[in-house]
Amino acid sequence: DMTEKEMIQEIQRLKKKKNAVILAHNYQIPEIQEIADIVGDYLKLSQEAVKTNGDIILLSGVHFMAESIKMLLPNKKVLLPVYDAGCPMAEMIDVEKLKDFKSQYPNIPVVCYVNSSAEVKAESDICCTSSNAVKIVKSLPGEKVLFIPDKNLGDYIDKKIPEKQVISWEGFCITHHRVREGEVDLVRLRHPEALILAHPECPPEVVAKADFVGSTSEIIKFAGESNNNSFIIGTEMGVLHQLRKNNPNKKFHLLSPALICFNMKKTTLRDIYLALLNEEKEIFVEEGIRRKALKSLEGMLEIS
Ligand code: CIZ
Ligand code: SF4
Fold this sequence. Notes:
The chain is an alpha/beta fold and 304 residues long. The protein has three domains: 4-85 and 264-284, 3-Layer(aba) Sandwich (Rossmann fold); 89-172, Rossmann fold (3-Layer(aba) Sandwich), CATH 3.40.50; 176-254, Rossmann fold, CATH 3.40.50.10800. Helix content is 43%, strand content 16%. The protein is built from 14 helices and twelve strands. The strands form three sheets. The protein has a four-stranded parallel sheet with strand order 2-1-3-4, sandwiched between helices. Strands 6-5-7-8 form a four-stranded parallel sheet. The chain has a four-stranded parallel sheet with strand order 10-9-11-12, with helices on both faces. Helix 2 links the parallel strand 1 (20-25) and strand 2 (38-40). Helix 1 runs parallel beside helix 13 (269-278) and helix 11 (216-225) packs parallel to helix 12 (239-246). 45% of the residues are buried. Bound molecules: (~{Z})-2-methylbut-2-enedioic acid and iron/sulfur cluster. The site of (~{Z})-2-methylbut-2-enedioic acid has 12 residues, from helix 3.
């Protein structure tokens, strides 16, 4: 059996030999973030993916992320080391339910959070991430939008854009949605000096009590630039790694012990090593679906 050190060396060797690029989501375990070429949120990873000239793109994250990168780069080999690392929120809506939702509210544009399947993206008008959701919704004509699948993010956008009505699907992130308002009150008492930075996937009553609300990239940027020295982080615990690495003199606490996404933690260094070695766990998307979904993804990337 290989030691962790040998495994890391092998991953580095295979990466060079095969001209592979490793993209790691910032919810991945620290060891994986350390061996990755690019670490970031979904938007950063997809923007960087289209710029690389690697022959193999290995995405360490969850299924919808690898699938969207494959749609942007159909001629590259895109690997997802653990096939069953999925996003439960993405599974809360499918094409049939979306068609039904659209027929209840005809002629209203559908904005689809990237945490969704290729088929659902193909049935939507434009995608968004938590970094660009407000901008995307503002860019659309008319007073109403349908937002899928995250109700918490939809409610957040609705409050940010008073002139528009955001009608949300009732999906949620099983990780962020577990944070309770009482936990915010408790950390305020324990760490009165700290700023609370929360992700808009958290419940609205948690978001309302945060000092700053943003995507993981925005949270990392805010903490780095802030003059404050202590922060309570209301997003998945994986981001603590970059935060502590970038800011050795600042203190970071997690808002809630619930903030761990089990799907994001399924991938190990060994899975990455095996996927690279055998060039397996490749992601494919049916061409008809890809062409339709790509319109929604490219619409988003143009506005971002
Ligand atoms: O924007 C990201 O990085 C996303 C979509 C993260 C998540 O919560 O899955
Ligand atoms: Fe899905 Fe939530 Fe995990 Fe992101 S953190 S992959 S939204 S379950």
